[in-house]
Amino acid sequence: RPTPLTLLGTGAMGTALARAWLAAGHPVTVWNRTPARAAALAGQGATVAASAADAVAAGRLVITCLLDDASVGATLDGADLTGRDLVNLTTGTPEEGRDRAAWAEARGARFLDAGIMAVPPMIGAANSGAYVFYSGSAALFEEHRDTLAVPAGATYVGADPGFAALHDVALLSAMNGMFAGITHAFALIRRQDIAPKDFAPLLVSWLTAMAPMAHQAAERLDSGDYSTDVVSNLAMQVAGNTTLLRTAEEQGVSPELLTPYLALMERRLAAGHGDEDTTGLIDLLLTGR
Ligand code: NDP
């Protein structure tokens, strides 16, 4: 039987989640600070609660999808969480996840933190690849796994409530680096008579071909052996970087997105690691030297 659930926060993401659960036949009670945004879901079968405390009282499984951790605290302030299963789909830091877990447990609730790897149009859509990282109470996850998996795939990453946010933010950080590279690449071709639409497929297939390098980095981190004779080593890469920088200069493109990463390579090379690949840069970020 579909599990009844309460959803606090019907912004863009909360609304998409609510629609997916409603479509799958789950009874959903919603609350939103601005009532009009929750009321819009009534027509689709949601019950609209008059207050956050009322919404929490309506059922055992309580899901928050609010702006940030502070809004979660503010929203749940007057609610009785005793015996509740609280699942926080609000983006936050690992530390916020751990603190919120302790906060919820002190109020008699089981707790799962989460990080959503999707944008709202992907929620509830077949084969969209959308999924959510969960961490915290394994018992809660096991009990509600099927319900949680309705809007998007559910991936449990550990009992430490900070791990969902850590996985989420690590992936987002990698994505930022990729977008920085895409931004620089388009800037390089922009001054020339090269159609962006012709260039984009080349960019996508190159990035796709290079992404599996992450597996090699993982193997090297495990073995502790960063030396390479297969891919270009740091000494060669640093020498090659001058070509990247001179090209940016020739094209009149600011190198500001490129230089921090090149500077890191130079520091690792200067420390005597010219025979390695770039895995040692990870250690450099951890130790600062
Ligand atoms: P929206 O800006 O659309 O909605 C924000 C929600 O938070 C609204 O319900 C808003 O209420 C509520 N809110 C803000 N401040 C408070 C407060 N002080 N007290 C109570 N409620 C408050 O954001 P999204 O729905 O897109 O995002 C919700 C969460 O989902 C965020 O943590 C976001 O990082 C995460 N997420 C979103 C993604 C996306 O692509 N949209 C992707 C992955 C994660 P009100 O309507 O009254 O303003």
TrEMBL record:
Residues 6-153 form the 6-phosphogluconate dehydrogenase NADP-binding domain. InterPro entries: 6PGD_dom2, 6PGDH_NADP-bd, HIBADH-related, HIBADH-related_NP60_sf, NAD(P)-bd_dom_sf, RedAm-like_C. Residues 160-285 form the NADPH-dependent reductive aminase-like C-terminal domain. Pfam families: NAD_binding_2, RedAm-like_C. Keywords: Oxidoreductase. GO terms for molecular function: oxidoreductase activity. Transmembrane segments: none annotated. Its EC number is 1.1.-.-. Belongs to the HIBADH-related family. This is NAD(P)-dependent oxidoreductase. It comes from Streptomyces cellulosae.
